[in-house]
Amino acid sequence: MAKQTIDQTDVAGKTVLMRVDFNVPLNDAGKITDDRRIQSAMSSIQSVISRGGKLILISHLGRPKGDGGDAKYSLAPTAERLSEMLGQPVAFATDTVGDDAKAKVAALEAGGVVILENLRFNPGEKAGDAEFASKLAAMADIYCNNAFGTCHRKDASMFAVPQAMEGKPKVVGHLVATEIEYLTNAISAPQRPFVAILGGAKVSDKIKVIKNLLDICDTILIGGAMAYTFSLAKGGKVGKSLVEPDYVDLAKELIAAGGDKLQLPIDTHCGDDFSGSCNKQVVAAGEIPEGWEGLDIGPETAKKYADIIASAKTVVWNGPMGVFEMSPFDEGTKIVAQAVADSDSISIIGGGDSAAAVDQLGFADKVSHVSTGGGASLAMLEGQRFAAVDILDEA
Protein backbone atom coordinates (compact mmCIF):
# COMPACT_ATOMS: atom_id res chain seq x y z
CA MET A 1 0.00 0.00 0.00
CA ALA A 2 3.06 2.29 -0.30
CA LYS A 3 2.01 5.67 -1.67
CA GLN A 4 3.77 8.62 -3.28
CA THR A 5 4.71 11.10 -0.55
CA ILE A 6 4.75 14.87 -0.44
CA ASP A 7 8.57 14.78 -0.24
CA GLN A 8 8.72 12.98 -3.60
CA THR A 9 6.60 15.68 -5.26
CA ASP A 10 7.84 18.91 -6.83
CA VAL A 11 5.92 21.70 -5.08
CA ALA A 12 7.95 24.80 -6.06
CA GLY A 13 5.58 27.53 -7.25
CA LYS A 14 2.62 25.14 -7.02
CA THR A 15 -0.43 25.16 -4.76
CA VAL A 16 -0.87 22.17 -2.47
CA LEU A 17 -4.25 21.31 -0.94
CA MET A 18 -3.42 19.37 2.22
CA ARG A 19 -6.12 17.59 4.21
CA VAL A 20 -4.97 17.68 7.83
CA ASP A 21 -6.57 16.62 11.11
CA PHE A 22 -6.79 19.81 13.15
CA ASN A 23 -9.71 18.47 15.20
CA VAL A 24 -8.15 19.88 18.36
CA PRO A 25 -9.85 20.28 21.77
CA LEU A 26 -10.96 23.83 22.60
CA ASN A 27 -11.99 25.25 25.97
CA ASP A 28 -15.04 27.47 26.54
CA ALA A 29 -12.97 30.52 25.67
CA GLY A 30 -12.11 29.00 22.27
CA LYS A 31 -8.47 28.35 23.23
CA ILE A 32 -6.66 25.18 22.12
CA THR A 33 -5.93 22.93 25.12
CA ASP A 34 -3.85 20.32 23.26
CA ASP A 35 -2.05 21.12 19.99
CA ARG A 36 -0.49 17.69 19.32
CA ARG A 37 -2.52 17.22 16.14
CA ILE A 38 -1.10 20.45 14.75
CA GLN A 39 2.40 19.45 15.84
CA SER A 40 2.05 16.08 14.12
CA ALA A 41 1.37 17.82 10.79
CA MET A 42 4.33 20.20 11.05
CA SER A 43 6.90 18.14 9.15
CA SER A 44 4.61 17.84 6.11
CA ILE A 45 3.73 21.53 6.28
CA GLN A 46 7.42 22.45 6.46
CA SER A 47 8.16 20.14 3.52
CA VAL A 48 5.87 22.21 1.30
CA ILE A 49 6.67 25.74 2.41
CA SER A 50 10.44 25.22 2.68
CA ARG A 51 10.49 24.17 -0.99
CA GLY A 52 8.53 27.17 -2.22
CA GLY A 53 5.07 25.65 -2.36
CA LYS A 54 1.85 27.49 -1.60
CA LEU A 55 -0.17 25.64 1.03
CA ILE A 56 -3.92 25.41 1.62
CA LEU A 57 -4.82 23.48 4.79
CA ILE A 58 -8.29 21.98 5.15
CA SER A 59 -9.76 20.16 8.15
CA HIS A 60 -12.88 19.48 10.16
CA LEU A 61 -13.31 20.31 13.83
CA GLY A 62 -16.02 18.78 16.03
CA ARG A 63 -19.50 17.92 14.86
CA PRO A 64 -21.18 21.14 13.71
CA LYS A 65 -24.64 21.02 12.14
CA GLY A 66 -23.35 21.83 8.66
CA ASP A 67 -25.05 25.20 8.28
CA GLY A 68 -21.95 27.29 9.07
CA GLY A 69 -23.55 28.86 12.11
CA ASP A 70 -21.68 27.05 14.88
CA ALA A 71 -18.90 29.53 15.68
CA LYS A 72 -17.51 27.44 18.57
CA TYR A 73 -16.23 24.97 15.95
CA SER A 74 -14.31 27.56 13.93
CA LEU A 75 -10.78 26.64 12.87
CA ALA A 76 -9.61 30.23 13.46
CA PRO A 77 -7.70 29.29 16.66
CA THR A 78 -5.67 26.73 14.69
CA ALA A 79 -4.45 29.43 12.28
CA GLU A 80 -3.32 31.52 15.23
CA ARG A 81 -1.50 28.58 16.85
CA LEU A 82 0.11 27.42 13.60
CA SER A 83 1.34 30.95 12.96
CA GLU A 84 3.09 30.90 16.36
CA MET A 85 4.60 27.49 15.66
CA LEU A 86 5.87 28.40 12.18
CA GLY A 87 7.03 31.89 13.12
CA GLN A 88 5.23 33.38 10.11
CA PRO A 89 1.72 34.68 9.34
CA VAL A 90 -0.92 32.07 8.54
CA ALA A 91 -3.95 33.42 6.71
CA PHE A 92 -7.45 32.29 7.68
CA ALA A 93 -10.39 32.15 5.30
CA THR A 94 -13.82 32.59 6.87
CA ASP A 95 -15.40 30.13 4.41
CA THR A 96 -14.40 26.96 2.54
CA VAL A 97 -15.15 27.56 -1.15
CA GLY A 98 -16.62 31.07 -1.06
CA ASP A 99 -15.26 34.51 -1.90
CA ASP A 100 -12.95 34.81 1.11
CA ALA A 101 -11.34 31.41 0.48
CA LYS A 102 -10.81 32.26 -3.20
CA ALA A 103 -9.30 35.65 -2.34
CA LYS A 104 -6.99 34.26 0.36
CA VAL A 105 -5.80 31.44 -1.93
CA ALA A 106 -5.22 33.87 -4.82
CA ALA A 107 -3.10 36.05 -2.52
CA LEU A 108 -0.79 33.18 -1.50
CA GLU A 109 2.89 33.59 -2.30
CA ALA A 110 5.61 30.92 -2.33
CA GLY A 111 6.01 29.56 1.20
CA GLY A 112 2.64 31.00 2.27
CA VAL A 113 -0.09 29.17 4.20
CA VAL A 114 -3.85 29.60 4.47
CA ILE A 115 -6.29 27.59 6.57
CA LEU A 116 -9.85 27.38 5.27
CA GLU A 117 -12.81 27.40 7.65
CA ASN A 118 -14.17 24.12 9.08
CA LEU A 119 -15.06 21.78 6.20
CA ARG A 120 -18.09 20.49 8.09
CA PHE A 121 -19.64 23.98 8.06
CA ASN A 122 -20.53 22.99 4.48
CA PRO A 123 -23.05 20.10 4.26
CA GLY A 124 -21.25 18.91 1.12
CA GLU A 125 -18.33 17.61 3.22
CA LYS A 126 -20.15 14.83 5.10
CA ALA A 127 -22.34 14.14 2.05
CA GLY A 128 -19.28 13.53 -0.14
CA ASP A 129 -20.75 16.08 -2.57
CA ALA A 130 -18.99 16.21 -5.96
CA GLU A 131 -19.78 19.89 -6.61
CA PHE A 132 -18.31 20.98 -3.26
CA ALA A 133 -15.29 18.73 -3.89
CA SER A 134 -14.68 20.13 -7.38
CA LYS A 135 -14.59 23.69 -5.98
CA LEU A 136 -11.93 22.67 -3.46
CA ALA A 137 -10.01 20.70 -6.09
CA ALA A 138 -9.96 23.67 -8.48
CA MET A 139 -7.90 25.67 -5.98
CA ALA A 140 -4.79 23.49 -6.18
CA ASP A 141 -2.24 21.69 -8.35
CA ILE A 142 -1.47 18.91 -5.84
CA TYR A 143 -3.57 17.03 -3.28
CA CYS A 144 -1.98 15.70 -0.08
CA ASN A 145 -3.78 13.48 2.44
CA ASN A 146 -2.21 13.95 5.86
CA ALA A 147 -5.30 13.13 7.98
CA PHE A 148 -5.07 9.48 9.01
CA GLY A 149 -7.84 9.91 11.59
CA THR A 150 -10.42 10.25 8.80
CA CYS A 151 -8.87 7.87 6.23
CA HIS A 152 -11.61 5.29 6.89
CA ARG A 153 -14.28 7.80 5.81
CA LYS A 154 -15.42 8.94 2.36
CA ASP A 155 -16.06 12.59 3.23
CA ALA A 156 -15.70 14.94 0.25
CA SER A 157 -12.25 16.17 1.29
CA MET A 158 -10.99 12.60 1.67
CA PHE A 159 -12.30 10.97 -1.50
CA ALA A 160 -14.29 13.20 -3.87
CA VAL A 161 -11.57 15.90 -3.88
CA PRO A 162 -8.71 13.63 -5.02
CA GLN A 163 -11.18 12.02 -7.43
CA ALA A 164 -11.84 15.49 -8.90
CA MET A 165 -8.08 16.09 -9.25
CA GLU A 166 -7.57 13.38 -11.85
CA GLY A 167 -4.28 13.92 -13.68
CA LYS A 168 -2.79 15.96 -10.83
CA PRO A 169 -0.45 14.51 -8.15
CA LYS A 170 -2.37 12.92 -5.26
CA VAL A 171 0.02 12.02 -2.45
CA VAL A 172 0.30 11.30 1.27
CA GLY A 173 1.88 13.40 3.99
CA HIS A 174 4.36 12.07 6.52
CA LEU A 175 1.68 11.22 9.07
CA VAL A 176 -0.36 8.99 6.77
CA ALA A 177 2.77 7.42 5.29
CA THR A 178 3.99 6.45 8.77
CA GLU A 179 0.60 5.08 9.86
CA ILE A 180 0.34 2.95 6.73
CA GLU A 181 3.88 1.68 7.16
CA TYR A 182 3.41 0.61 10.77
CA LEU A 183 -0.14 -0.71 10.65
CA THR A 184 0.00 -2.51 7.31
CA ASN A 185 3.41 -4.03 8.05
CA ALA A 186 2.23 -5.20 11.45
CA ILE A 187 -0.66 -7.04 9.86
CA SER A 188 0.91 -8.25 6.61
CA ALA A 189 4.40 -9.22 7.79
CA PRO A 190 4.66 -9.16 11.60
CA GLN A 191 7.74 -10.18 13.49
CA ARG A 192 6.73 -13.01 15.82
CA PRO A 193 5.53 -13.64 18.42
CA PHE A 194 2.79 -11.16 17.46
CA VAL A 195 0.67 -10.12 20.47
CA ALA A 196 -2.50 -8.00 20.30
CA ILE A 197 -3.84 -6.32 23.44
CA LEU A 198 -7.52 -5.41 23.16
CA GLY A 199 -9.41 -3.53 25.85
CA GLY A 200 -12.15 -0.95 26.10
CA ALA A 201 -15.79 -1.19 27.00
CA LYS A 202 -17.53 -3.09 24.24
CA VAL A 203 -17.04 -6.44 22.52
CA SER A 204 -19.29 -5.05 19.76
CA ASP A 205 -16.64 -2.39 18.93
CA LYS A 206 -13.91 -5.01 18.58
CA ILE A 207 -15.63 -8.07 17.03
CA LYS A 208 -14.18 -7.60 13.55
CA VAL A 209 -10.76 -6.80 14.97
CA ILE A 210 -10.74 -9.95 17.11
CA LYS A 211 -11.91 -12.10 14.21
CA ASN A 212 -9.28 -10.67 11.87
CA LEU A 213 -6.44 -10.85 14.41
CA LEU A 214 -7.24 -14.44 15.41
CA ASP A 215 -6.03 -15.39 11.93
CA ILE A 216 -2.86 -13.29 12.23
CA CYS A 217 -1.73 -13.05 15.88
CA ASP A 218 -0.04 -15.58 18.09
CA THR A 219 -1.84 -14.30 21.20
CA ILE A 220 -4.70 -11.88 21.91
CA LEU A 221 -4.94 -10.45 25.44
CA ILE A 222 -8.43 -9.27 26.44
CA GLY A 223 -9.02 -6.58 29.08
CA GLY A 224 -11.36 -3.71 29.82
CA ALA A 225 -15.08 -3.99 30.39
CA MET A 226 -15.54 -6.20 27.33
CA ALA A 227 -13.88 -8.99 29.36
CA TYR A 228 -17.07 -9.22 31.44
CA THR A 229 -19.16 -10.12 28.40
CA PHE A 230 -16.69 -12.96 27.75
CA SER A 231 -16.98 -13.91 31.43
CA LEU A 232 -20.75 -14.06 31.10
CA ALA A 233 -20.31 -16.26 28.01
CA LYS A 234 -18.34 -18.72 30.17
CA GLY A 235 -21.14 -18.85 32.75
CA GLY A 236 -19.40 -16.53 35.20
CA LYS A 237 -20.89 -14.05 37.66
CA VAL A 238 -20.33 -10.39 36.73
CA GLY A 239 -22.29 -8.49 39.41
CA LYS A 240 -23.24 -5.05 38.13
CA SER A 241 -20.30 -4.88 35.67
CA LEU A 242 -20.77 -3.31 32.26
CA VAL A 243 -21.77 -6.12 29.87
CA GLU A 244 -23.43 -6.57 26.47
CA PRO A 245 -25.95 -9.41 26.89
CA ASP A 246 -26.77 -9.35 23.15
CA TYR A 247 -23.18 -10.33 22.37
CA VAL A 248 -22.80 -13.28 24.74
CA ASP A 249 -23.41 -15.86 21.99
CA LEU A 250 -20.85 -14.16 19.77
CA ALA A 251 -18.38 -14.10 22.66
CA LYS A 252 -18.90 -17.87 23.01
CA GLU A 253 -18.08 -18.29 19.31
CA LEU A 254 -14.91 -16.20 19.68
CA ILE A 255 -13.82 -18.23 22.72
CA ALA A 256 -14.35 -21.47 20.79
CA ALA A 257 -12.54 -20.15 17.70
CA GLY A 258 -9.68 -18.59 19.68
CA GLY A 259 -8.71 -21.52 21.88
CA ASP A 260 -5.44 -20.84 23.72
CA LYS A 261 -4.73 -17.93 21.41
CA LEU A 262 -7.46 -15.84 23.10
CA GLN A 263 -6.35 -15.03 26.65
CA LEU A 264 -8.99 -13.78 29.10
CA PRO A 265 -8.43 -12.28 32.57
CA ILE A 266 -7.95 -14.74 35.45
CA ASP A 267 -8.80 -12.21 38.17
CA THR A 268 -10.64 -8.90 38.47
CA HIS A 269 -10.23 -5.76 40.56
CA CYS A 270 -13.74 -4.79 41.67
CA GLY A 271 -15.44 -1.89 43.38
CA ASP A 272 -18.86 -1.49 44.98
CA ASP A 273 -19.23 1.90 43.30
CA PHE A 274 -17.78 3.68 40.26
CA SER A 275 -15.31 5.83 42.20
CA GLY A 276 -11.71 5.71 43.36
CA SER A 277 -12.84 5.87 47.00
CA CYS A 278 -15.21 2.86 46.82
CA ASN A 279 -14.72 -0.40 48.71
CA LYS A 280 -12.45 -2.67 46.69
CA GLN A 281 -11.58 -6.34 46.36
CA VAL A 282 -9.81 -8.67 43.95
CA VAL A 283 -11.74 -11.80 42.94
CA ALA A 284 -11.24 -14.64 40.50
CA ALA A 285 -12.60 -13.93 37.01
CA GLY A 286 -16.28 -14.84 36.84
CA GLU A 287 -16.71 -14.51 40.62
CA ILE A 288 -17.78 -10.87 40.92
CA PRO A 289 -20.36 -10.61 43.75
CA GLU A 290 -23.76 -8.97 43.43
CA GLY A 291 -23.56 -5.21 43.92
CA TRP A 292 -19.92 -5.09 42.79
CA GLU A 293 -18.48 -4.24 39.38
CA GLY A 294 -15.25 -5.08 37.62
CA LEU A 295 -13.17 -1.93 37.04
CA ASP A 296 -9.76 -3.35 36.09
CA ILE A 297 -7.91 -6.57 35.40
CA GLY A 298 -6.52 -8.10 38.60
CA PRO A 299 -2.84 -8.31 39.60
CA GLU A 300 -2.41 -11.95 38.52
CA THR A 301 -3.81 -11.14 35.07
CA ALA A 302 -1.57 -8.08 34.80
CA LYS A 303 1.50 -10.18 35.67
CA LYS A 304 0.51 -12.93 33.21
CA TYR A 305 -0.06 -10.41 30.42
CA ALA A 306 3.23 -8.62 31.17
CA ASP A 307 5.11 -11.94 30.89
CA ILE A 308 3.51 -12.67 27.50
CA ILE A 309 4.32 -9.15 26.25
CA ALA A 310 7.95 -9.47 27.39
CA SER A 311 8.64 -12.14 24.76
CA ALA A 312 6.72 -10.45 21.93
CA LYS A 313 8.38 -9.07 18.80
CA THR A 314 5.30 -7.18 17.57
CA VAL A 315 2.66 -5.66 19.85
CA VAL A 316 -0.53 -3.90 18.79
CA TRP A 317 -2.57 -2.33 21.59
CA ASN A 318 -6.07 -0.89 21.30
CA GLY A 319 -8.08 -0.14 24.44
CA PRO A 320 -7.13 0.21 28.14
CA MET A 321 -7.31 -2.67 30.64
CA GLY A 322 -9.55 -0.84 33.10
CA VAL A 323 -10.73 2.58 34.20
CA PHE A 324 -7.28 4.10 33.66
CA GLU A 325 -8.47 7.64 34.45
CA MET A 326 -9.30 6.61 38.05
CA SER A 327 -6.75 5.35 40.57
CA PRO A 328 -6.33 2.57 41.71
CA PHE A 329 -8.15 1.07 38.70
CA ASP A 330 -5.40 2.32 36.41
CA GLU A 331 -2.98 -0.30 37.76
CA GLY A 332 -3.65 -2.98 35.12
CA THR A 333 -3.18 -0.50 32.27
CA LYS A 334 0.01 0.80 33.96
CA ILE A 335 1.55 -2.67 34.25
CA VAL A 336 0.68 -3.55 30.65
CA ALA A 337 2.00 -0.19 29.41
CA GLN A 338 5.23 -0.69 31.36
CA ALA A 339 5.63 -4.17 29.85
CA VAL A 340 5.13 -2.79 26.33
CA ALA A 341 7.61 0.04 26.99
CA ASP A 342 10.21 -2.39 28.40
CA SER A 343 9.88 -4.94 25.58
CA ASP A 344 12.12 -4.88 22.52
CA SER A 345 9.10 -5.34 20.27
CA ILE A 346 7.76 -3.15 17.49
CA SER A 347 4.97 -1.60 19.54
CA ILE A 348 1.99 0.14 17.97
CA ILE A 349 -0.58 1.93 20.12
CA GLY A 350 -3.88 2.17 18.27
CA GLY A 351 -5.07 5.68 19.04
CA GLY A 352 -8.02 6.78 21.19
CA ASP A 353 -7.99 5.84 24.87
CA SER A 354 -4.90 3.63 24.48
CA ALA A 355 -2.90 6.58 23.17
CA ALA A 356 -4.24 8.79 25.96
CA ALA A 357 -3.30 6.17 28.57
CA VAL A 358 0.23 5.70 27.22
CA ASP A 359 0.70 9.46 27.08
CA GLN A 360 -0.75 10.01 30.56
CA LEU A 361 1.53 7.32 32.01
CA GLY A 362 4.60 8.84 30.34
CA PHE A 363 5.37 5.96 27.96
CA ALA A 364 4.61 7.66 24.61
CA ASP A 365 8.30 8.06 23.77
CA LYS A 366 9.07 4.44 24.72
CA VAL A 367 6.88 2.77 22.09
CA SER A 368 7.51 2.51 18.36
CA HIS A 369 4.38 4.27 17.16
CA VAL A 370 1.31 5.95 18.64
CA SER A 371 -1.47 6.14 16.06
CA THR A 372 -3.25 9.46 15.54
CA GLY A 373 -6.52 7.83 14.50
CA GLY A 374 -8.50 5.66 16.92
CA GLY A 375 -11.32 4.74 14.52
CA ALA A 376 -9.02 4.53 11.51
CA SER A 377 -6.44 2.32 13.24
CA LEU A 378 -9.25 0.05 14.45
CA ALA A 379 -10.62 -0.18 10.90
CA MET A 380 -7.16 -1.06 9.59
CA LEU A 381 -6.79 -3.78 12.26
CA GLU A 382 -10.15 -5.13 11.05
CA GLY A 383 -8.54 -5.58 7.65
CA GLN A 384 -10.54 -2.84 5.93
CA ARG A 385 -9.25 -1.14 2.81
CA PHE A 386 -9.49 2.64 2.70
CA ALA A 387 -10.93 4.13 -0.50
CA ALA A 388 -9.43 7.50 0.54
CA VAL A 389 -5.96 5.94 0.45
CA ASP A 390 -6.47 3.58 -2.50
CA ILE A 391 -7.28 6.55 -4.77
CA LEU A 392 -3.87 8.16 -4.15
CA ASP A 393 -0.80 7.70 -6.38
CA GLU A 394 1.29 4.58 -5.90
CA ALA A 395 4.94 5.01 -4.93
Automatic annotation (TrEMBL):
GO terms for biological process: gluconeogenesis; glycolytic process. Belongs to the phosphoglycerate kinase family. It is found in: Cytoplasm. This is Phosphoglycerate kinase. The keyword Nucleotide-binding applies. (2R)-3-phosphoglycerate binds at residues 37, 120, 153. Keywords: ATP-binding, Cytoplasm, Glycolysis, Kinase, Nucleotide-binding, Transferase. It is an enzyme of class 2 (transferase). PROSITE patterns: PGLYCERATE_KINASE. GO terms for molecular function: ADP binding; ATP binding; phosphoglycerate kinase activity. It comes from Roseimaritima multifibrata. One of its GO terms (cellular component) is cytosol.
